[in-house]
Amino acid sequence: MQVNVSRKFAVATDIYAFELVRPDGAALPSFSAGAHIDVVLHDGLVRQYSLCNSPSESHRYMIAVLRDANSRGGSIAMHALEEGSLLEISEPKNHFPLHAHARHSILLAGGIGVTPIVSMADVLDRAGASFEMHYCARSAARAAFLDRLAEPRLADRVHLYFDDAAHGERLRLDALLAQAGSDTHLYVCGPSGFIAAVIEAAKAAGWDDANVHREFFAAAPTRAQESGAFQVKLSSTGRVVDVAAGTTVVAALAQAGVDVPTSCEQGVCGTCLTRVLSGEPDHRDVYLMDEEKAANDRFLPCCSRSKSAMLVLDL
């Protein structure tokens, strides 16, 4: 659908928020906390951004975008937008939902990872649910939405940690996650290193994987090693497609006339998730959980490869 950028404003150093509305002023499709939208930019470039306003609002979507020094084009294009610009977006999708029956929720945000977390905090507060939020940033100037988090209804449940604070409190994951209750759920979003540290601490403390939920904004760089050639076979026709070293499965299939829907092309969003009927994938995504990767019955062909000579795909 098409939306207008009705407002663009700074919420932290190098972070702009964008309010998106329908050109005719009609209500937007509903969404739940943790949801994101796809935004189509120039030359077909598509990026995913979490919705950070309250799901109770139907007149607007709000996203916030960090200008990344290592941008592949998305954040630069977003920051170049002006108020009044027309954008094409998808309806909201949610791969990072709140658990409906959690007794207590722990929300952890690192940097721009606060965008889905602040929406979660709003929903949990309005529902009268038990939760706490912990937000880590390089400095207060680089922390987004501090004004919202300082509102009386949230302030006593929000804990802030800044790297440049001389005598500031530091987040101690071991202490925070020491009590792994069966009905407590953990949500984490932020840089991959931050998420990895949280997941490692949760595992060390005995947390059930089903109670640990994460949302990556970017995958780790693809490994250069073990990127040799292999083949994929289409189960519907028996056709075999060669995947050369340095070529993604999605690209090889496209060259053969087989289109697989993609969006992020980094193994983050799950749009291209494909069933594997035979063979052993080399998982390089951050979308699938460890147990899902171990099952080897699905993979993301935008970034993952194969450990076996051939993968038979449900295509």
Quick rundown:
This is Oxidoreductase. The chain is an alpha/beta fold.
Count of helical regions: 8
Instruction: Outline the biggest β-sheet.
Output: 6 strands, antiparallel
The residue fraction in helices comes out at: 10-25%
Number of discrete domains? 3
Spatial arrangement of strands, main beta sheet: 4-3-6-1-2-5
Give the topology, please.
Elements: E1 2-12, E2 15-21, E3 36-40, E4 46-50, E5 61-66, H1 74-80, E6 86-89, E7 104-110, H2 114-126, E8 131-137, H3 146-149, H4 152-155, E9 158-162, H5 173-176, E10 184-190, H6 192-204, E11 212-216, E12 230-234, E13 240-243, H7 249-255, E14 274-278, E15 281-282, H8 290-295, E16 298-299, E17 305-306, E18 310-313
Parallel strand pairs: 7-8, 7-10, 8-9, 10-11, 12-18
Antiparallel strand pairs: 1-2, 1-6, 2-5, 3-4, 3-6, 12-13, 14-16, 14-18, 15-17
Cofactor: FMN
Keywords: 2Fe-2S, Flavoprotein, FMN, Iron, Iron-sulfur, Metal-binding, Oxidoreductase
Protein name: Oxidoreductase
Tell me what you see in this structure:
- The protein is of the alpha/beta class and 315 residues long.
- It folds into three domains: 88 residues, Translation factors (Elongation Factor Tu (Ef-tu), domain 3, Beta Barrel), CATH 2.40.30; 113 residues, 3-Layer(aba) Sandwich (Rossmann fold), CATH 3.40.50; 84 residues, Ubiquitin-like (UB roll) (Roll), CATH 3.10.20.
- Helix content is 18%, strand content 30%.
- The protein has eight helices and 18 strands.
- The protein has a six-stranded antiparallel beta sheet, covered by helices on one side. A five-stranded parallel beta sheet has the order 9-8-7-10-11, with helices on both faces. A five-stranded mixed beta sheet has the order 13-12-18-14-16.
- The longest helix has 13 residues.
- The two termini are 28 Å apart.
- The model has no long low-confidence stretch (mean pLDDT 91).
- GO terms for molecular function: 2 iron, 2 sulfur cluster binding; metal ion binding; oxidoreductase activity.
- Pfam families: DmmA-like_N, Fer2.
- This is Oxidoreductase.
